[in-house]
């Protein structure tokens, strides 16, 4: 019976190793396919990049305690309306669950989609170490650029215009 138990344990260990090897975590890289999101909208529904298929996505990681994040939001809101035919701005909030981001977004009159990354899985996939960090994803789902730090409206507008020129 001891031999059978060793066999079973050995088979289970090999199976677990194969399973873990098959679950390699997606990592964001410019030029590669954008990793899937593991985030939920403010109503608790899972958010997916597929929702915005066919448009450029400006994926912006932000936190309520980040001054640069809050400072660039009005420009992103304005540009999301101006360039809404070709680009969607999607905010990914990195705060803990106890932060009321809906009130903050309402206060700043932000209407572009926002999601919460409660488990930090999306941040890990996108290798976000600080906020604001943003990614430009093309209509085919490929990351075309990464931006670390706050961008001013002229810089954001240049990014959005380039995307429109590329046929976004």
Write the layout of secondary structure elements.
Layout: H1 2-22, E1 39-41, E2 46-47, E3 56-62, H2 67-82, E4 87-93, H3 101-107, E5 114-116, H4 121-125, E6 133-137, E7 143-148, H5 153-165
Parallel strand pairs: 3-4, 4-5
Antiparallel strand pairs: 1-2, 1-5, 3-6, 6-7
Question: Which properties best describe this structure?
Answer:
alpha/beta, Glutaredoxin, 37% helix, 20% strand, globular
Give a description of the structure.
- The chain is α/β, with parallel strands linked by helices and 168 residues long.
- The chain has a single domain, classed as Glutaredoxin.
- It contains 5 helices and 7 strands.
- Strands 2-1-5-4-3-6-7 form a 7-stranded mixed sheet.
- Helix 2 packs parallel to helix 5.
- The chain starts with a helix and ends with a helix.
- About 8% of the residues have low confidence.
């Amino acid at each position: 019976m001891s031999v059978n138990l060793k066999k079973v344990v050995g088979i289970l260990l090999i199976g677990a190793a194969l399973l873990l090897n098959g679950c390699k975590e997606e990592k964001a890289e410019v030029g590669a396919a954008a990793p899937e999101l593991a985030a939920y909208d403010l109503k608790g529904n899972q958010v997916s990049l597929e929702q915005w298929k066919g448009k450029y996505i400006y994926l912006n990681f932000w936190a309520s305690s980040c001054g640069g994040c809050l400072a660039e939001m009005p420009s992103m809101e304005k540009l999301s309306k101006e360039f809404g035919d070709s680009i969607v701005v999607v905010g990914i909030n990195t705060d803990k669950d106890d932060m009321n981001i809906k009130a903050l977004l309402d206060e700043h009159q932000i209407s572009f989609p926002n999601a919460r990354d409660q488990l930090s899985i999306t941040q890990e996939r996108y290798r976000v170490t600080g906020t604001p960090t943003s990614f430009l994803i093309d209509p085919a789902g490929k990351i075309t650029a990464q931006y670390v730090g706050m961008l001013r409206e002229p810089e954001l507008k240049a990014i959005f215009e380039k995307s429109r020129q590329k046929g976004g």
